[in-house]
Each structure stands twice: as structure tokens, then as C-alpha cells.
Amino acid sequence: MEPTPIVPSPVVPESQRQAQDTINRYLSDTVNAMPTGSTLDGTRYIVGDGTSFCEDNPSGDDPPVRVTDWRDVEPPEGTDFAGLIDQTGALWKSWGWQVLERDGFDKPNRFGYAPDGYVLQISARPDPTQPPSLIASSPCFPESRRDNGVRKIPVISQTP
Fold it and tell me: Quick one: CA torsion of 104, 96, 33, 155, rounded to 10 degrees?
């Protein structure tokens, strides 16, 4: 697999809320650029608070965690899914992000690496009749900044 781009201006979230708010902003900006009527539906993925350890075997008193937010892209009927994935990658590039298509994932796919360390990925599904999935993740932050009161927005819709 190709190397992950180096983050030029990493930002360690001050809290889980800040990490989720940043993810929500990136997801909102992304869905707003999709075809009219698109939504990002996370209802089938809402389990817990979305945090997970950054390491396979966490150790220490305050191991790092990250926020991950999984979504189903729900575009209007008739949308070309491969074109939507390509357009989304182009959007992220226009923001100054590094964007790659990665091996080892269903294709087409685009991974957008933000200068602040957040990552968004949109990829085709194994069943090409299904719309793409979109996953956002934050940089790692100390577990002590975790907040079980932070809830995800179930469906992110376009704003007028």
C-alpha cells in the first residue's frame, strides 16, 4: 500500500466535541457540493460515541483515540457513482488537500488528507449498484479528552 501523506499542519483536537464538530463541518461542506438532494446517512452506523484507540495495543495512562464517522452517501436517483467519487476528490483537492486513489480498497475511491490531519475517504461498494460510502476520521488525541456526551448527527443534509 502507498504511504500516507505527511500532515503539514497537524492539529490535535482539544476535545472529542471539537473533533466531531470539525468532521461535521467537513462532511457538510462535502455534501453541499454533491448533486442537489444528496444526504450523508449515518443512521446504521451509530453505535457508541465513534471513538476508537489509535493503536492496536494501547498502553499508558492516557492512550490516543480518534473519532471516526461512517456514512452512506444517498445521492439522487440516476447519479453516476464513479463520477460522484471523482468530483468529491476534486472538491477536496480544491481545498488544498492531498487526494489519492488507494490500492486495497474498492475502486474507484478517493482519500482526502487535510493539512490539519483529518482524513475523508469516499469509495465504491463491492456491489456497484449501491452508492458510495464516506468515512471521516480525526487526528488522534488523548483519551482523557473523550466525552461520552458527544452525539453524531444521524443524517447530514445539504444546506440552502
Answer: 60
Residues 32, 156 contacting (CB under 8 angstroms) = no
pTM of the predicted model as reported, rounded to 2 decimal places: 0.93
Count of domains forming the chain? 1
d(CA 119, CA 22): 11
Q: How does pLDDT run along the chain (160 residues), one tens digit per residue?
A: 677 888 888 899 999 999 999 999 999 999 999 999 999 999 998 777 788 999 999 888 999 999 999 999 999 999 999 999 999 999 999 999 999 999 999 999 999 999 999 999 999 999 989 999 999 999 999 999 999 888 889 999 999 8
- Domain containing residue 126: 16-52+66-157
Q: Identify how many contiguous H helices and E strands the chain contains and give both numbers.
A: 2, 9
5's grid cell: 501523506
Around 99, how many Cα atoms within 13 Å sit in the side-chain half-sphere? 20
In a domain, residue 28? The reply is yes
Asked if 1 and 130 touch (Cβ cutoff 8 Å), the reply is: no
